[in-house]
Amino acid sequence: MLNIILYIASIISFIIGLFFLAVATIGLLRLPDIYNRLHATTKCDTLGAGLVLLSLALQSELAVAIRLALLIIFIVITNPTAAHVIARAAYRTGITPLIGRSESDG
Amino acid sequence: MIYEQILDYLYTIGAILVMLMIFFSMIRALAGPTAPDRVVAINIITTYTLIIITLIARIYEQVYFLDIAMVYALMGFITTIGVAKYLEKGALD
Q1: What ipTM score was computed for the predicted complex, to two decimals?
Q2: For a disulfide at A48, which of A4, A21, B5, B90, Cβ 3.0-4.6 Å?
Q3: Collapsed DSSP state (helix, strand, coil) of residue A35
Q4: Residues near A97 by Cβ (< 8 Å), separated by ≥ 6?
Q5: Using an 8 Å Cβ cutoff, are A41 and B44 in contact?
Q6: What are A52-101's pLDDT values in tens digits?
Q7: For chain B, what is the domain count?
Q8: Distance of residue A1 Cα from the nearest chain B Cα, in angstroms
Q9: What's the domain range around B76?
Q10: Does the predicted model carry a pTM greater than 0.80?
Q11: Is B69 close to A106, i.e. CB distance below 8 A?
Q12: CB within 8 Å: B14 and A18
């Protein structure tokens, strides 16, 4: 019984994670500005990767689950840090945010 | 068991879908108008590759691929930090 619940939770978590990864890719392709793209990709990518790895960890034994949990913690720490560094680099190299200018200005 | 078979098929299909997402992110990495756009695309491709490595570790039941995934995550993070620092300062010091 517990096994079946874990398998179903794993399937649901995997599908939701794939959805968020697809949202991150669509945001990376469609949004107009570097800051908008960072906004889309960082959060959706972190959540999607975490859900996919959680789906793998739910139905594996303890040693594998610990490694996957370490990977999840690592992703949750490093992905926002990388996004912060990229946004700071973009701002300091003179790319202005998309406030007060239209999308067609580039 | 039926759920295990469903998960096997689902992980294979998911790995192929993540590969397609890498392809579409590569379009942004090639066409991005500024350099930080390319860095964002490379960062997201790193995360996707990590997911593919863990899915392959599950499909082929090789536990040691997870260690490779960990090293890959570290290297991707250091690459992103290094390139962003280089863009910001013009040098790596």
Answers
A1: 0.88
A2: A21
A3: helix
A4: A33, A35, A91
A5: yes
A6: 999 999 988 898 999 999 999 999 999 999 999 999 998 888 888 877 66
A7: 1
A8: 12
A9: 2-89
A10: yes
A11: no
A12: yes
